[in-house]
Write a structure and sequence with these properties.
This protein is an alpha+beta fold and 383 residues long. Helices cover 18% and strands 42% of the residues. The protein has helices at 37-47, 61-68, 88-96, 118-124, 139-145, 167-176, 240-246, 266-275, and strands at residues 4-10, 30-32, 35-36, 52-57, 71-72, 75-81, 98-99, 101-102, 104-116, 148-149, 153-165, 181-189, 194-198, 201-206, 210-222, 250-254, 260-262, 279-282, 285-292, 297-303, 311-313, 319-325, 327-332, 336-340, 344-347, 353-357, 361-367, 375-378. Strands 1, 4, 5, 6, 9, 11, 12, 15, 16 and 17 form a ten-stranded mixed β-sheet that branches. Strands 18-19-20-27-22-25 form a six-stranded antiparallel β-sheet, with no helix packed on it. The chain has a three-stranded antiparallel β-sheet with strand order 24-23-26, with no helix packed on it. Strand 2 and strand 3 form a beta hairpin. Helix 3 (88-96) packs parallel to helix 5 and helix 4 packs parallel to helix 6 (167-176).
Length: 383
Protein backbone atom coordinates (compact mmCIF):
# COMPACT_ATOMS: atom_id res chain seq x y z
CA UNK A 1 0.00 0.00 0.00
CA UNK A 2 1.35 3.42 -0.99
CA UNK A 3 1.41 6.31 1.44
CA UNK A 4 -2.08 7.72 1.86
CA UNK A 5 -2.75 11.27 3.04
CA UNK A 6 -5.96 12.12 4.88
CA UNK A 7 -7.87 15.38 4.43
CA UNK A 8 -10.92 16.62 6.32
CA UNK A 9 -13.06 19.55 5.17
CA UNK A 10 -13.48 21.69 8.31
CA UNK A 11 -14.18 25.12 6.85
CA UNK A 12 -17.97 25.43 6.94
CA UNK A 13 -19.98 27.84 9.08
CA UNK A 14 -22.52 25.29 10.35
CA UNK A 15 -25.32 27.86 10.16
CA UNK A 16 -28.13 25.33 10.62
CA UNK A 17 -26.62 24.22 13.94
CA UNK A 18 -26.59 27.66 15.49
CA UNK A 19 -26.36 28.69 18.32
CA UNK A 20 -24.08 25.67 18.95
CA UNK A 21 -21.76 26.68 16.11
CA UNK A 22 -21.52 30.37 16.96
CA UNK A 23 -18.44 29.77 19.12
CA UNK A 24 -17.06 26.50 17.71
CA UNK A 25 -16.74 25.09 14.17
CA UNK A 26 -19.10 22.24 13.32
CA UNK A 27 -16.43 19.48 13.43
CA UNK A 28 -15.91 20.32 17.14
CA UNK A 29 -19.53 19.63 18.04
CA UNK A 30 -19.62 16.88 20.67
CA UNK A 31 -21.44 13.65 19.86
CA UNK A 32 -20.79 12.41 23.40
CA UNK A 33 -18.94 13.87 26.39
CA UNK A 34 -15.52 15.17 25.26
CA UNK A 35 -15.79 13.31 21.93
CA UNK A 36 -16.38 15.42 18.84
CA UNK A 37 -17.14 14.66 15.20
CA UNK A 38 -13.49 15.42 14.43
CA UNK A 39 -12.27 13.10 17.21
CA UNK A 40 -14.21 10.29 15.54
CA UNK A 41 -12.78 11.08 12.10
CA UNK A 42 -9.17 11.33 13.30
CA UNK A 43 -9.65 8.09 15.26
CA UNK A 44 -10.78 6.39 12.02
CA UNK A 45 -7.74 7.68 10.13
CA UNK A 46 -5.38 6.48 12.86
CA UNK A 47 -6.84 2.97 12.82
CA UNK A 48 -6.57 2.83 9.02
CA UNK A 49 -2.81 3.38 9.31
CA UNK A 50 -2.85 6.97 8.02
CA UNK A 51 0.00 8.98 9.55
CA UNK A 52 -0.60 12.48 8.11
CA UNK A 53 -3.91 14.34 8.07
CA UNK A 54 -4.53 17.81 6.61
CA UNK A 55 -7.37 19.76 8.19
CA UNK A 56 -8.79 22.15 5.59
CA UNK A 57 -10.03 24.91 7.88
CA UNK A 58 -11.48 28.39 7.80
CA UNK A 59 -14.12 29.59 10.25
CA UNK A 60 -12.83 29.48 13.88
CA UNK A 61 -9.81 27.42 12.83
CA UNK A 62 -7.99 28.49 16.01
CA UNK A 63 -10.48 26.45 18.07
CA UNK A 64 -9.45 23.30 16.22
CA UNK A 65 -5.77 24.07 16.79
CA UNK A 66 -6.42 24.63 20.48
CA UNK A 67 -7.99 21.20 20.84
CA UNK A 68 -5.70 19.05 18.70
CA UNK A 69 -2.44 20.89 18.21
CA UNK A 70 -0.07 19.12 15.80
CA UNK A 71 -0.75 15.50 16.77
CA UNK A 72 -3.61 13.15 17.57
CA UNK A 73 -2.64 9.76 19.07
CA UNK A 74 0.43 9.54 16.82
CA UNK A 75 -1.22 11.06 13.72
CA UNK A 76 0.53 14.20 12.42
CA UNK A 77 -1.92 17.07 11.94
CA UNK A 78 -1.32 19.80 9.34
CA UNK A 79 -3.50 22.88 8.91
CA UNK A 80 -4.56 24.52 5.67
CA UNK A 81 -6.36 27.80 6.39
CA UNK A 82 -8.66 29.41 3.84
CA UNK A 83 -8.84 33.07 4.84
CA UNK A 84 -11.75 33.81 2.50
CA UNK A 85 -14.32 31.03 1.89
CA UNK A 86 -14.23 30.09 -1.79
CA UNK A 87 -15.73 26.60 -1.61
CA UNK A 88 -14.51 23.05 -1.09
CA UNK A 89 -12.89 22.71 -4.51
CA UNK A 90 -10.32 25.37 -3.68
CA UNK A 91 -9.78 23.92 -0.21
CA UNK A 92 -8.92 20.51 -1.65
CA UNK A 93 -6.71 22.16 -4.26
CA UNK A 94 -4.68 23.89 -1.53
CA UNK A 95 -4.38 20.66 0.39
CA UNK A 96 -3.14 18.77 -2.65
CA UNK A 97 -0.49 21.40 -3.34
CA UNK A 98 1.07 20.56 0.04
CA UNK A 99 1.72 16.86 -0.63
CA UNK A 100 3.75 14.81 -3.10
CA UNK A 101 2.35 14.02 -6.54
CA UNK A 102 2.77 10.25 -6.10
CA UNK A 103 0.77 9.95 -2.86
CA UNK A 104 -2.86 8.81 -2.82
CA UNK A 105 -5.52 10.47 -0.71
CA UNK A 106 -8.92 10.05 0.90
CA UNK A 107 -11.11 13.15 1.34
CA UNK A 108 -13.85 13.26 3.98
CA UNK A 109 -16.50 15.79 4.84
CA UNK A 110 -15.85 16.70 8.46
CA UNK A 111 -19.50 16.49 9.55
CA UNK A 112 -20.42 13.00 8.31
CA UNK A 113 -20.62 10.08 10.74
CA UNK A 114 -20.65 6.58 9.21
CA UNK A 115 -19.58 2.99 9.92
CA UNK A 116 -17.95 2.61 6.50
CA UNK A 117 -14.83 0.50 5.93
CA UNK A 118 -12.23 2.98 4.67
CA UNK A 119 -9.53 0.31 4.45
CA UNK A 120 -11.76 -1.63 2.07
CA UNK A 121 -12.71 1.49 0.12
CA UNK A 122 -9.06 2.26 -0.57
CA UNK A 123 -8.47 -1.35 -1.59
CA UNK A 124 -11.28 -1.25 -4.15
CA UNK A 125 -10.98 2.23 -5.48
CA UNK A 126 -10.71 16.54 -14.72
CA UNK A 127 -10.92 19.21 -16.75
CA UNK A 128 -13.38 21.95 -17.92
CA UNK A 129 -13.61 25.47 -19.33
CA UNK A 130 -17.01 26.09 -17.73
CA UNK A 131 -17.11 28.74 -14.99
CA UNK A 132 -19.41 28.40 -11.99
CA UNK A 133 -20.55 30.75 -9.27
CA UNK A 134 -18.79 30.37 -5.91
CA UNK A 135 -20.70 27.85 -3.83
CA UNK A 136 -19.46 25.89 -0.83
CA UNK A 137 -16.61 23.43 -1.43
CA UNK A 138 -14.30 23.86 -4.41
CA UNK A 139 -11.73 26.38 -3.16
CA UNK A 140 -11.07 24.61 0.13
CA UNK A 141 -10.23 21.39 -1.72
CA UNK A 142 -7.94 23.29 -4.08
CA UNK A 143 -6.04 24.70 -1.08
CA UNK A 144 -5.60 21.20 0.27
CA UNK A 145 -4.15 19.91 -2.99
CA UNK A 146 -1.58 22.72 -3.06
CA UNK A 147 -0.23 21.63 0.34
CA UNK A 148 0.76 18.06 -0.53
CA UNK A 149 3.38 16.35 -2.68
CA UNK A 150 2.54 15.23 -6.19
CA UNK A 151 3.09 11.52 -5.47
CA UNK A 152 0.60 11.25 -2.60
CA UNK A 153 -2.72 9.43 -2.71
CA UNK A 154 -5.55 10.91 -0.66
CA UNK A 155 -8.66 10.29 1.39
CA UNK A 156 -10.80 13.42 1.74
CA UNK A 157 -13.70 13.51 4.21
CA UNK A 158 -16.52 15.98 4.69
CA UNK A 159 -16.12 17.49 8.15
CA UNK A 160 -19.70 16.89 9.31
CA UNK A 161 -20.02 13.16 8.54
CA UNK A 162 -20.08 10.49 11.25
CA UNK A 163 -19.55 7.08 9.66
CA UNK A 164 -18.32 3.60 10.59
CA UNK A 165 -16.47 3.33 7.29
CA UNK A 166 -13.59 0.85 6.93
CA UNK A 167 -10.96 3.19 5.54
CA UNK A 168 -8.37 0.46 5.02
CA UNK A 169 -10.74 -1.49 2.78
CA UNK A 170 -11.64 1.65 0.86
CA UNK A 171 -7.96 2.37 0.25
CA UNK A 172 -7.21 -1.20 -0.81
CA UNK A 173 -10.13 -1.23 -3.24
CA UNK A 174 -9.27 2.21 -4.58
CA UNK A 175 -5.69 1.18 -5.31
CA UNK A 176 -6.94 -1.76 -7.40
CA UNK A 177 -9.70 0.22 -9.10
CA UNK A 178 -9.59 1.04 -12.81
CA UNK A 179 -10.74 4.55 -11.90
CA UNK A 180 -8.42 7.28 -10.56
CA UNK A 181 -11.09 8.62 -8.19
CA UNK A 182 -13.60 6.73 -6.03
CA UNK A 183 -16.54 8.01 -3.98
CA UNK A 184 -18.07 6.25 -0.98
CA UNK A 185 -21.80 5.85 -1.58
CA UNK A 186 -24.42 4.98 1.01
CA UNK A 187 -28.03 3.89 0.71
CA UNK A 188 -30.55 6.69 1.09
CA UNK A 189 -33.00 6.53 3.98
CA UNK A 190 -36.42 8.09 3.65
CA UNK A 191 -36.83 11.06 6.00
CA UNK A 192 -40.47 10.03 6.43
CA UNK A 193 -42.42 6.92 7.27
CA UNK A 194 -43.83 5.14 4.21
CA UNK A 195 -47.36 3.78 3.81
CA UNK A 196 -48.29 1.01 1.38
CA UNK A 197 -51.77 0.74 -0.10
CA UNK A 198 -53.80 -2.13 -1.54
CA UNK A 199 -56.77 -0.92 -3.53
CA UNK A 200 -58.67 1.44 -1.25
CA UNK A 201 -57.05 -0.05 1.85
CA UNK A 202 -53.94 1.14 3.68
CA UNK A 203 -51.94 -2.10 3.91
CA UNK A 204 -48.85 -1.34 6.01
CA UNK A 205 -46.49 1.21 7.53
CA UNK A 206 -42.71 1.32 7.15
CA UNK A 207 -40.85 3.72 9.43
CA UNK A 208 -38.22 5.64 7.42
CA UNK A 209 -37.12 2.69 5.25
CA UNK A 210 -33.98 2.47 3.14
CA UNK A 211 -34.70 3.40 -0.46
CA UNK A 212 -33.37 1.91 -3.69
CA UNK A 213 -31.12 4.92 -4.22
CA UNK A 214 -27.55 5.72 -3.23
CA UNK A 215 -26.14 9.09 -2.27
CA UNK A 216 -22.67 10.63 -2.00
CA UNK A 217 -21.38 9.56 1.45
CA UNK A 218 -18.88 12.41 1.78
CA UNK A 219 -15.68 10.33 1.59
CA UNK A 220 -13.40 10.36 -1.48
CA UNK A 221 -10.29 8.40 -2.47
CA UNK A 222 -7.91 9.56 -5.19
CA UNK A 223 -4.75 7.93 -6.50
CA UNK A 224 -3.24 11.32 -7.33
CA UNK A 225 -3.91 15.05 -7.34
CA UNK A 226 -7.04 16.25 -9.08
CA UNK A 227 -6.93 18.31 -12.25
CA UNK A 228 -9.20 21.27 -11.51
CA UNK A 229 -9.00 22.69 -15.02
CA UNK A 230 -10.46 26.20 -15.10
CA UNK A 231 -12.59 25.72 -11.99
CA UNK A 232 -11.49 28.12 -9.25
CA UNK A 233 -14.35 28.19 -6.76
CA UNK A 234 -17.68 26.54 -6.06
CA UNK A 235 -19.06 23.21 -4.94
CA UNK A 236 -16.89 20.36 -6.21
CA UNK A 237 -19.93 18.04 -6.30
CA UNK A 238 -21.60 20.42 -8.77
CA UNK A 239 -18.56 21.46 -10.81
CA UNK A 240 -15.73 18.96 -11.17
CA UNK A 241 -17.44 15.68 -10.18
CA UNK A 242 -20.14 15.70 -12.90
CA UNK A 243 -17.49 16.37 -15.53
CA UNK A 244 -15.24 13.58 -14.23
CA UNK A 245 -18.20 11.18 -14.23
CA UNK A 246 -18.91 11.98 -17.90
CA UNK A 247 -15.25 11.27 -18.67
CA UNK A 248 -15.48 7.86 -16.90
CA UNK A 249 -12.99 8.86 -14.20
CA UNK A 250 -15.06 8.10 -11.08
CA UNK A 251 -15.70 4.73 -9.48
CA UNK A 252 -17.42 4.03 -6.19
CA UNK A 253 -16.96 2.16 -2.94
CA UNK A 254 -20.03 0.83 -1.17
CA UNK A 255 -20.77 -0.67 2.23
CA UNK A 256 -24.36 -1.40 3.20
CA UNK A 257 -25.90 -1.64 6.64
CA UNK A 258 -23.55 0.82 8.35
CA UNK A 259 -24.25 3.77 10.60
CA UNK A 260 -23.92 6.96 8.55
CA UNK A 261 -25.10 10.46 9.36
CA UNK A 262 -24.34 13.93 8.01
CA UNK A 263 -24.77 16.36 10.89
CA UNK A 264 -26.47 19.39 9.34
CA UNK A 265 -29.35 20.07 11.73
CA UNK A 266 -30.12 19.80 15.44
CA UNK A 267 -32.33 16.77 14.73
CA UNK A 268 -29.48 14.95 12.99
CA UNK A 269 -27.14 15.86 15.85
CA UNK A 270 -29.64 14.42 18.32
CA UNK A 271 -29.82 11.21 16.26
CA UNK A 272 -26.04 10.86 16.40
CA UNK A 273 -25.93 11.58 20.12
CA UNK A 274 -28.61 8.94 20.68
CA UNK A 275 -26.46 6.43 18.76
CA UNK A 276 -23.51 7.30 20.99
CA UNK A 277 -25.46 7.32 24.26
CA UNK A 278 -24.02 3.95 25.38
CA UNK A 279 -21.47 3.44 22.60
CA UNK A 280 -17.67 3.44 22.71
CA UNK A 281 -15.64 3.48 19.49
CA UNK A 282 -12.87 0.89 19.29
CA UNK A 283 -9.95 0.52 16.85
CA UNK A 284 -11.82 -2.43 15.32
CA UNK A 285 -15.35 -0.96 15.33
CA UNK A 286 -17.52 -0.19 18.33
CA UNK A 287 -19.01 -1.59 21.52
CA UNK A 288 -22.50 -0.57 22.66
CA UNK A 289 -24.22 -1.40 25.95
CA UNK A 290 -27.81 -2.48 25.23
CA UNK A 291 -28.91 -3.78 28.66
CA UNK A 292 -27.13 -3.53 32.01
CA UNK A 293 -28.81 -4.90 35.15
CA UNK A 294 -27.73 -6.51 38.40
CA UNK A 295 -28.25 -9.93 36.82
CA UNK A 296 -26.91 -9.68 33.28
CA UNK A 297 -25.25 -7.52 30.64
CA UNK A 298 -25.95 -7.32 26.90
CA UNK A 299 -23.56 -5.58 24.51
CA UNK A 300 -23.56 -5.08 20.76
CA UNK A 301 -20.19 -5.38 19.05
CA UNK A 302 -19.50 -4.23 15.49
CA UNK A 303 -16.21 -5.53 14.10
CA UNK A 304 -15.06 -4.30 10.70
CA UNK A 305 -13.94 -6.72 8.01
CA UNK A 306 -10.27 -7.73 8.41
CA UNK A 307 -10.12 -6.34 11.95
CA UNK A 308 -10.03 -8.21 15.24
CA UNK A 309 -10.36 -7.53 18.94
CA UNK A 310 -7.35 -7.72 21.22
CA UNK A 311 -6.35 -11.15 22.54
CA UNK A 312 -8.04 -11.02 25.94
CA UNK A 313 -9.91 -12.84 28.69
CA UNK A 314 -12.45 -12.14 31.43
CA UNK A 315 -11.79 -13.06 35.04
CA UNK A 316 -15.45 -13.39 36.08
CA UNK A 317 -17.60 -12.77 33.04
CA UNK A 318 -19.28 -15.79 31.45
CA UNK A 319 -20.52 -14.75 28.00
CA UNK A 320 -22.52 -16.12 25.11
CA UNK A 321 -22.18 -14.53 21.67
CA UNK A 322 -25.07 -14.44 19.20
CA UNK A 323 -23.97 -13.64 15.64
CA UNK A 324 -26.49 -11.20 14.17
CA UNK A 325 -24.71 -10.74 10.83
CA UNK A 326 -21.34 -11.32 9.21
CA UNK A 327 -18.74 -14.07 9.48
CA UNK A 328 -15.35 -14.74 11.01
CA UNK A 329 -13.76 -16.84 13.70
CA UNK A 330 -12.70 -16.81 17.33
CA UNK A 331 -9.05 -17.53 17.90
CA UNK A 332 -8.27 -19.42 21.11
CA UNK A 333 -4.89 -20.56 22.41
CA UNK A 334 -5.45 -24.13 21.23
CA UNK A 335 -8.12 -23.91 18.52
CA UNK A 336 -10.04 -21.75 16.04
CA UNK A 337 -13.84 -21.69 15.98
CA UNK A 338 -15.54 -20.28 12.88
CA UNK A 339 -18.88 -18.50 12.96
CA UNK A 340 -21.51 -17.06 10.64
CA UNK A 341 -24.97 -15.54 10.94
CA UNK A 342 -27.23 -17.08 13.64
CA UNK A 343 -24.40 -19.01 15.30
CA UNK A 344 -24.04 -19.07 19.10
CA UNK A 345 -20.70 -19.33 20.91
CA UNK A 346 -20.09 -19.51 24.65
CA UNK A 347 -16.86 -18.26 26.23
CA UNK A 348 -16.27 -19.06 29.88
CA UNK A 349 -14.16 -17.01 32.33
CA UNK A 350 -10.35 -17.04 32.00
CA UNK A 351 -10.42 -18.28 28.39
CA UNK A 352 -8.07 -16.21 26.23
CA UNK A 353 -9.51 -15.34 22.83
CA UNK A 354 -9.73 -12.83 19.98
CA UNK A 355 -12.72 -12.22 17.69
CA UNK A 356 -11.68 -11.92 14.02
CA UNK A 357 -14.10 -10.61 11.35
CA UNK A 358 -13.75 -11.85 7.77
CA UNK A 359 -16.88 -9.84 6.94
CA UNK A 360 -18.40 -6.85 8.71
CA UNK A 361 -19.82 -8.53 11.80
CA UNK A 362 -22.48 -7.54 14.33
CA UNK A 363 -22.86 -9.74 17.40
CA UNK A 364 -24.73 -9.53 20.69
CA UNK A 365 -22.80 -10.55 23.76
CA UNK A 366 -24.94 -11.68 26.71
CA UNK A 367 -23.02 -12.20 29.94
CA UNK A 368 -22.88 -11.96 33.69
CA UNK A 369 -22.88 -8.28 34.76
CA UNK A 370 -19.18 -7.39 34.84
CA UNK A 371 -18.98 -4.36 32.57
CA UNK A 372 -15.22 -3.65 32.74
CA UNK A 373 -13.97 -7.20 33.20
CA UNK A 374 -11.49 -7.37 30.28
CA UNK A 375 -7.79 -8.18 30.57
CA UNK A 376 -5.78 -7.69 27.37
CA UNK A 377 -3.04 -10.27 26.79
CA UNK A 378 -1.97 -9.00 23.36
CA UNK A 379 -3.26 -5.69 22.03
CA UNK A 380 -2.97 -5.24 18.26
CA UNK A 381 -3.56 -1.48 18.40
CA UNK A 382 -1.90 1.58 19.92
CA UNK A 383 -4.44 3.47 22.02
Amino acid sequence: MEKTIGMILCGGFGKRLRPITEKIPKPLVEIKDDYTILDKQLFDFKNAGIEDVYLLTGFLNEKIKERFGNEYKGVNIHYIIEEEPLGTLNAIRLGMEAIDDHDQFIIRNGDVIADSNLKKMIKEGEKSNIEEEPLETLNLIRLGMEAIDDHDQFIIRNGDVVADLNLKKMIEQGEKSNYPFNIFITQMQSPYGIVETNGEKLASFKEKPLLDYYINGGVYFSKSKLDFGDFKTGDIEKTLFPLMAKENKIGYYREDGLFWMAVDTSKELENVRQEYKNRTDKPWGYEKVLIYTEKYLTKELFIKEDYQTSFHYHEKKDETMYIISGAGYIEFNDKTEYFSKNDTIRIEPNIEHSIVATENTVLHEVSTPYLDDTIRVNDFYTR
